[in-house]
């Protein structure tokens, strides 16, 4: 567990203004980006700190939160980085909701409801003209007031490109055409709603099976092969889907999305309807 960086003390002042006297907990720290949960008598917030190359990414994410009506954000700079404070979203992630399903302990009704809620949240974001860009099992939080999305670092409004370079987010949930455009080398690459739908289906698949959708082993790719090697194989659609089928009725719909050409993929709203029709 690290120390909260003293140079970013202004973030604590902002958090304390919202919550009262704080208790701090480090949630994650990777690639220059750290998340802390800060809680007090009046509530809890998330503090995200981006240092070095992550500073620009964090500033961009704060600007996205500022533009989304359901979110609020306070943002500031410190020596070498950017911090922002946003309300803590209370509830399990999609990955958490599916845990009993993965263990074969039931919970399918709750999981289906969660899957529909996640599709709905993505559909609403898309209908408002946004692309998320980094949908993952941990990036949907199932709150009392519905599903809220997290981690908007690679989000953009359709028609704008707020970065000069995009090298991809979670490789295992990267749509083949997006992998191909990153490989192709011409930047900036845009994230897209159709690639979001691929990642959404892949997220649900992962939540059901506990493993990423693609079976690298069968494609002769080592599990810890470099990302570039996986990206090349994904771009060429050279990696088959995993054959683990614990929930065929749901997975058949997801499989259809994961194998479809980008233009043939359903929208997030259409995927929601497909998932609603699944029997628990
Ligand atoms: N506002 C929030 N409410 C609840 N949990 C959060 C919030 N922000 C971040 N988290 C938690 O911290 C984790 C990391 O945050 P994220 O924004 O995904 O950062 P990273 O860029 O490091 O992936 C999330 O998966 C989630 O568990
Ligand atoms: Mg994340």
From TrEMBL:
One Pfam family here: Pkinase
Domain Protein kinase span(s) in chain numbering: 1-278
Superkingdom of origin organism: Bacteria
Cross-referenced Gene3D superfamilies: Transferase(Phosphotransferase) domain 1 (1.10.510.10)
InterPro entries: Kinase-like_dom_sf, Prot_kinase_dom, Ser/Thr_Kinases-Pseudokinases
SUPFAM superfamilies listed in its UniProt record: Protein kinase-like (PK-like)
PANTHER family in the record: SERINE/THREONINE-PROTEIN KINASE TNNI3K-RELATED
Protein name: Protein kinase domain-containing protein
Naturally occurring in which organism (per UniProt): Kitasatospora misakiensis
Highest classification ranks of the organism: Bacteria, Bacillati, Actinomycetota, Actinomycetes, Kitasatosporales
């Amino acid at each position: 567990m690290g120390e909260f960086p003293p140079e970013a003390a202004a973030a604590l002042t902002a958090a304390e203004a919202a919550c009262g006297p704080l208790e701090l907990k480090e949630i994650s720290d990777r690639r220059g980006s750290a998340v802390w949960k800060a809680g007090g008598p009046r509530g809890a917030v998330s503090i995200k700190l981006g240092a070095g190359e992550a500073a620009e990414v964090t500033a961009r994410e704060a600007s996205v939160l500022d533009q989304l009506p359901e979110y609020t954000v306070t943002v500031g700079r410190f020596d070498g980085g950017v911090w922002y404070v946003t309300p803590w979203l209370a509830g399990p992630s999609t990955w958490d909701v599916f845990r009993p399903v993965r263990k074969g302990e039931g919970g399918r009704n709750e999981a289906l409801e969660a899957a529909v809620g996640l599709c709905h949240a993505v559909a609403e974001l898309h209908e408002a003209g946004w692309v998320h860009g980094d949908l993952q099992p941990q990036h949907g939080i199932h709150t009392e007031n519905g599903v809220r999305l997290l981690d908007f670092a690679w989000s953009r409004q359709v028609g704008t490109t707020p970065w000069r370079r995009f090298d991809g987010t979670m490789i295992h949930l990267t749509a083949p055409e997006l992998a191909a455009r990153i490989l192709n080398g011409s930047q900036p690459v845009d994230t897209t709603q159709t690639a979001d739908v691929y990642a959404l289906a892949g997220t649900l698949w992962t939540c059901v099976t506990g493993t990423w959708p693609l079976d690298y082993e069968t494609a002769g790719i080592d599990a810890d092969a470099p990302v570039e090697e996986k990206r090349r194989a994904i771009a060429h659609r050279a990696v088959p889907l995993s054959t683990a089928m614990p929930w065929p009725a749901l997975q058949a719909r997801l499989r259809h999305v994961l194998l479809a050409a980008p233009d043939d993929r359903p929208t997030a709203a259409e995927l929601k309807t497909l998932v609603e029709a699944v029997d628990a």
